[in-house]
Amino acid sequence: MKYFIATDHAGVEIKNYTKELLEKMGHEVEDLGPFNTERVDYPDFAEKLAREVAKFSEKISEEEDWKNSGVFGILICGTGIGMSITANKIPNIRAGLCHDAYTAEMARAHNNANVLCFGARVVGKGTIESIVKAWDSAKFEGGRHLNRVQKIGKLDR
Asked: Most-buried pick from 38, 48, 74, 144 (CB within 10 A)?
């Protein structure tokens, strides 16, 4: 799988940790920055990442499932809230703010989320590892959840 990753100034250290974790898991990671802790505005990085992921997440049709392209995003800021709000403004993005392995698994399994968000000031490295691993191993269940995800997609228009 391929992951895009970005943060704001609050999450640079955690972004680097998460990137290394993903690479150790065998994934390709494209780091969209920033690369130092100078103050930046999180919406700029959230939009950049969401637009990259959206290129790979277009809906096939009203009747079919969403493409499972194997391309995802990870956004990190102080709380994860600003990143998730911003990313969800971009069509075809379903960003989930996750605080533990269970919320990460459910974001993928029930919501077919394609962007994982978390807060560098909210979760520690051990929790981040469990979040990333749960996200990475979960698959969209479809079924009753497909209709709900399609309803979300109709709001993108």
From this structure: 74
Which of 9, 27, 99, 110 is catalytic? The answer is 110
pLDDT digits (tens, 9 = 90+) for 81-133: 999 999 999 998 999 999 999 999 999 999 999 999 999 999 999 999 999 99
Catalytic one among 77, 98, 99, 117? 77
**In angstroms, rounded to a whole number, what is the distance separating the alpha carbons of residues 141 and 119?**
26
pTM of structure: 0.92
Known catalytic residue: 98? no
* 110 catalytic residue (yes or no): yes
- pLDDT tens for 14-57 read 999 999 999 999 999 999 999 999 999 999 999 999 999 998 87
Residues in CB range of 89: below 8 A, 6 or more apart: 47, 50
- Across 12-84, where does the E strand assignment appear? 28-31, 71-77
**What single-letter DSSP state applies at residue 100?**
S
